[in-house]
């Protein structure tokens, strides 16, 4: 994928990824940059540390007419996700972000979004609940495992930016919401070199959201959220399960398409150094994966 470019003076420039711009971004800004690149159209928001700068950046861009989206200031995280649900039911491409207690607070609506089959993408910047703490922890997102959301954890902020682009593609094909999770402060507030793809490159990979006929249509009224008897409830959940197990194969397929298009790839699950000398297996998510890689490489006697 490497190519040689020259500036106006004829000096050679090493461009690792054509049709990209290299920027130094904090993890939260990588997330907001990706939401813009994906043409998110509705962003309901409520601040909570450490995700606040994601929605602050999006709010600033909307206010400056640099981002064509509807930004809605809400009164709580529960209201945020209720608004996200309504916007998605109307056919909008929705993005928002939250953390910790905010995610716990909206637990009820997470179930509703998933089982209404709404393709929403959010960022959760992981933080714990009790004892009160604002630093990094993954108990908030992991505790939402059974809400029906697909979860992706970015090892780097580059993976967060790229993962949001892929998440919209996956979510809109399966009609299942996705949560992109990044670590508080170690990632959300730490700057990295990020390759930001050109808008046209993203548009070629992720076209505008297509309506599927299930959206709210004032000319053709529909009923949503009606009471269902036990047999129908079981059928709904079985159908959801059949679709969500497609996620891994679809993720790998879209990941390969992403690599062809952008020049970078990420596996959904990656196994390192598992052999006859392995004494213990360490399962990691997000930035601690990089630390684990260093231990495996530099301290082989540990047997991880």
What keyword list fits this structure?
304 residues, alpha/beta, two-stranded antiparallel sheet, 11 helices, 16% strand
Strand content: 15-25%
Provide the structure class.
alpha/beta
The total tally of domains equals 2
Q: Could you say what the CATH architecture of the largest domain is? A: 3-Layer(aba) Sandwich
* Rg for CA atoms: 20 Å
Remind me, CATH topology of the largest domain? Rossmann fold
The stretches of 5 or more residues where confidence is low (pLDDT under 50) are: none
Can you identify the CATH class of the largest domain?
Alpha Beta
Quick overview of this protein structure:
By secondary structure, the protein is of the alpha/beta class. It is about 40% helix and about 15% strand.
Overall description:
This protein has 304 residues and is of the alpha/beta class. It folds into 2 domains: 12-205, Rossmann fold, CATH 3.40.50.970; 270-304, no CATH class. It is 40% helix and 16% strand. The protein has 11 helices and 10 strands. The protein has helices spanning 27-37, 52-63, 77-89, 100-105, 107-115, 139-142, 157-174, 199-205, 230-244, 247-262, 288-298; strands spanning 3-6, 12-15, 20-26, 42-45, 70-73, 95-98, 121-126, 150-153, 178-183, 191-197. The strands form 4 sheets. It has a 4-stranded parallel β-sheet, with helices on both faces. A two-stranded antiparallel sheet has the order 1-2. Strand 4, helix 2 (52-63) and strand 5 form a beta-alpha-beta unit. The longest helix has 18 residues, at 157-174. It is globular. The two termini are 33 Å apart.
